[in-house]
Amino acid sequence: MAALLATALPSAAQTAGGTLKISSPAFQSGGMIPAKYSCDADKVNPPLVFSGVPASAKSLALIIDDPDVPKTMIPTGEFVHWIVWDIAPTSKGIAEADKSASTMGLNGTGKPGYYPMCPPDREHRYYFKLYALDKMLNDAKITNKQELLAAMKGHIVAQAELMARYPKKK
Question: Mind listing the domains of the chain with CATH numbers?
């Protein structure tokens, strides 16, 4: 399971619900992702913070993808950087450089785990999508984003999104 930031939300925060949110202390929504989290530097995942998890959530799932890949490189025009599921709904987020997540699927290279931002041609947008689910997915056979989305279908109780950008380095 993904490493938790300070392990758990206060119980009142979870029972109160609220609006599901995902953010990062490393960058602002719509802002630039620091090079540390890219193929140009440390190649580690950025820290992520979760809040407003509905009381009905039994697990969380995360998808990070890039919809700006040239279709000449990937026919769908989308590259998956990370998928993680069965995150505890009491989690405050995922720590920077987390390699402990046991429920990770394949990224766009066909390997499990986080793949750093590495635009091949220009500045790209990166979407961090957080889903609150009404069940754990541990019984589902999931290896990629499509299988994760299929397993989540009908079980999403809330979702949030964070978008940030990273440029191609010259």
Answer: 11-166 (3.90.280.10)
